[in-house]
Every structure is written in structure tokens, then in C-alpha cells.
Amino acid sequence: MMPDSPLPADERNVAGDARRMRRIITEDYSWSLAIIPALTDLCLQHIVRNFQHNPLLEKLLPKHRSKVLEQLSTSLPLPVTTNLISCEDYWRRCSSERWQTCDISHYGFSWKRLFFEKHLENLIECFIPDLTDTGAMCSTAELSKDYIRRLEIQQLLPPVKVEMRKEDEADDVSDSGSDAGGDLPSMDHFDLNLIAGSLCDLEELHLVYGVKGCGMNFEWNLFRFTDRDCAALANSFKTFKKLKVFQLHRSRVDDEKVRVLIRSLLNHPSLVHLNLSHNQISDRGARAVGKLLNQSQLQILNLCNNDIRPHGAQAIAHALTKNSTLKTLNLRLNHIGDEGGQALCHALLQNNSLETLHIGSNELSEPTTSVLAHVLSQNTSLKNANISCNRIGLDGGKQLLEGLSENKTLLECDLRLTDVGQESEFYMNQVLRDNQERARVEAQQTQRSTSGLER
Questions:
Q1: Is the pLDDT of residue 315 over 90?
Q2: Taking residues 306-317, what's their average pLDDT?
């Protein structure tokens, strides 16, 4: 017969309960001593799990809505989240999980705008003509139309099947890349007209008709802006009425194509910045650009690294004599020579709006600097001049110093690799520092006056 337990009955019961508790925990690993969640939390978890099929958000209290947004998956379909979720923190999570670098300062400090612009850019850059579904592209553009202001397209892919042209047959084959009409793809690159109707508020458009990272698979055929591409792009300008900045570079754009584009941009209601750098534009294209200067509100024009020669520079100079809106002109890395350089400098005697002129690496020499020196003694609008990488020489440097000594407005002058001489460069830099100090003092006085008027 077992002896009676030395413990009182109550203590024996407690000990028994403890043994049973330990046994239950050991045998059932899913059992927990944690407090049962509140009914509110259970409901919120249910909303999160079923959000795709029942996107309940607006009817929640603010504190409950915040909890749901913190737990929502970033992989939810865009048709569900686009117009329903405006919380910036949610779109920050979506963007950070997808892209390593996210700088919202370029997107109006809006995470939602950053996400949709980069998302659409990726779709366009991966689009393959006659292979990628255009319906999905159009629906995405329509869905995100209220959040797209800028598109920066770093590549545009050609069709998979492209008939390659030999170098010696380039003049005999059409610019579309195929001489067999029945085998032509429906488009040579992505056609912006497919989504232009959904992007009526687009303000900036940057395009490169080429393939990035092609490596050892490089072929010139991958970097071709064709006639069909040009016609389609020109037609899209009719829809992009709010376009302020247009950049088409590194795309082998020649004179004929730039003339087609310029024809569509004449009298554009809002274009202020045009960048056609790193292309194949020569004098005929430059004359078309000169016509654009006379019929638009352009403020910035970049034609860097093209094939513009004296006659093209003269056409642009002639337009400058009548233009009153252009503030920045970049003709670096062309071949305008002294004939073109002198024409541009003479134009500045009549132009009162241009503030920045870049004519570096243009085969200029002393004749151009003698005219520029005369201009600097009279022009009061030019603030930044770049004539680097030209054969100015010692005499040209002395003439520039003489003209600059009478100038009170020029703040920057790049004279690198011009052989103007250390002495002339030293005294010119001293004049520039005096002008910069004078401009700083005037800016402070203007700011004080403005503050006084506001009070």
C-alpha cells in the first residue's frame, strides 16, 4: 500500500497541474501560452490576407488602416492598389524592394510617381516588337496615367527577326532594315503612339534607340533610328502637348530625320528644352533647328557631338539674332571652325537672352577670339562661356583679356587646353572673380528688397 503524500491536497493539485501543463507543451508543439489575439487584430489580419479579392480600406478607422497598409504585400496586382492606396510608405516599400537606387527628388518627392514611372520605363525597355503583348502595355499606361510626368528610356529593342544589311548595300536597302515588304515587322521599335493617349500630361521624354549592354553581340543594326520610328515619334508630338523636355541622343539621327522631327515641333506650345546630342546632324539639320529657334519658346538647345560645320553654325547664328528666349546653347564637339564661330559671336551683339555658350572642341582659333573679345566688351547677358580645346594661342588670349576687362557680367569662362598663356589666364580669372563677387552682392541686395516688400 502506497504511503500518503507528505504534501497537502492543494499543493498536490498545483503540482499535478504543472506536470500536466509540461506534458501538454511537450506533446503539442503548436500549443502556446501567448495571449489570444484581440478580435480587432484577427479581423485586420483577415482583411490583409483577402485584400486582393476584397480590398477593404476606406471604411476602416485611421489607426486600423495604418496597420493594414503596413502588412500589405507589395506584390498585390496594380489594378487593385493603384487608385486605392495613396500612402507614400506603401509605395516606398514597393519601390525599395524592386530597385536598389531610388531618389525621389527626381520624381517630385513622390514614391508613388517614382514607382509608376520606373515601372512603365522597364516595360518599354523590355518591349520586343511583334513578341511582347501590346494590350498589357496599354492597360498599364492607362492605369498609371495620373502619375506619369517623365519617361527616361535607356534602350529600345528591335524586332527579333531583322534582316541584316551589309555595309556595301546600305544605300540600296530601305531604312526599315528589310527589302521584303511581306516580312516587315509591324514596328521597328516600340511605338509611343500605342500609349500616347494615356500620357497626355507627359512633361519630359528621354529616348535612346539602341541596346544597352549588348557586349560582344554589338551590331550597328541595334542602334538604328529608322524612317518608321521617326514618323511614329513625330506623330506622337501631336498628343504630347505638355512636353517641356525632349531628348533624343545616341541614336544616329541624321539630317532627314531631324527635319521630320523639327517639322512636328514647330510652334509646339510648351517645349523649352531640346537635346539632340551625340547624333549625325550636319548643316541641313542645323538649318532646320535654326528655323525652330524662330518659331518656338526654346530656352535650352543641346547639339553636342554632331557634324555641324560653318554653314550650319551660320544658320543657327542668324536665328539667334532674332531669338529672345534661348538661354543655353551647346555646340561642343562639332566642326564649325572660325567661320561658324565668328558668326555666332557676331550674333551675340544683337542677342540679349543667351546666358551660356559652349563652343569647345570646334577647331576655333584667334579670328574667333578677336570677335568674341569685341562681344564681351558690349554684351551684358552672357554669363558662362566655354571655348576649351581650341587653338586660341597667346595673341588670342591677350585679346580676350582686353575684351573681358570691360565686361561686368561674365561669371565663368572655360579656357582649358587653349594655350592662352598663364599670365592672360591669371588676369582673366581675376576679372571673373570680381564679377562673381559683384553678382553675389547684387543678389543679396535684391533678396533684401524682396523681403522688405513682402513684409
A1: yes
A2: 97
Q: What is the helix (H) or strand (E) element at residue 219, kind and residue range? A: none
Contact 393, 419 (CB under 8 A): yes
Residue with cell 541596346: 211
Beta strands in 130-250 (DSSP E): 150-152, 204-207, 245-248
* 3-state secondary structure at position 330: strand
Q: With pLDDT > 90 as the criterion, what percentage of the chain qualifies?
A: 77
245 and 191 Cβ atoms separated by less than 8 Å: no
Q: Three-state DSSP class for 106?
A: helix
- In angstroms, the CA 331 to CA 145 distance is 36
Residue 195's SS3 state is helix
Single-letter residue type at 303: L
In this structure, are residues 83 and 57 in contact, taking their beta carbons and an 8 Å threshold? no
Grid cell listed for 131: 513578341
CB 399 within 8 A of CB 371: no
Q: Are 286 and 314 in contact (CB under 8 A)?
A: no
d(CA 18, CA 24): 10
78 contacts 140 by C-beta, under 8 angstroms? yes
What is the model's pLDDT at position 25?
52
Residue 130: what residue type? D
- Rounded distance, CA 174 to CA 303, Å? 27
| pLDDT tens-digit readout, 88-122 | 999 999 999 999 989 999 999 999 999 999 999 99
Instruction: Find where cell 518591349 sits.
Output: 127
Map residue 320 onto helix, strand or coil. Answer: helix
Rounded to whole angstroms, the Cα distance separating 67 from 132 reads 38
**Three-class secondary structure of residue 132 per DSSP:** coil
Residues paired with residue 302 on neighbouring β-strands, in sequence order: 275, 330
C-alpha grid cell, residue 216: 560582344
Maximum pairwise Cα distance, the chain: 127
CB atoms within 10 A of CB 9: 8
Q: Where are the beta strands (DSSP E) in 78-208?
A: 150-152, 204-207
User: What is the average pLDDT across 174-197?
Assistant: 74
Is the pLDDT at 26 greater than 70? The verdict is: no
Reference 270, options 199, 219, 203, 322; nearest CA is: 203
CA distance 399 to 405: 10
Cα-Cα-Cα-Cα dihedral of 74, 76, 77, 78, to 10°? Answer: -40
Phi and psi, residue 412, nearest 5°:
-135, 140
- Residue 150 pairs in a beta bridge with 204
pTM here? 0.85
- Domain coordinates in residue numbering, the chain: 35-96
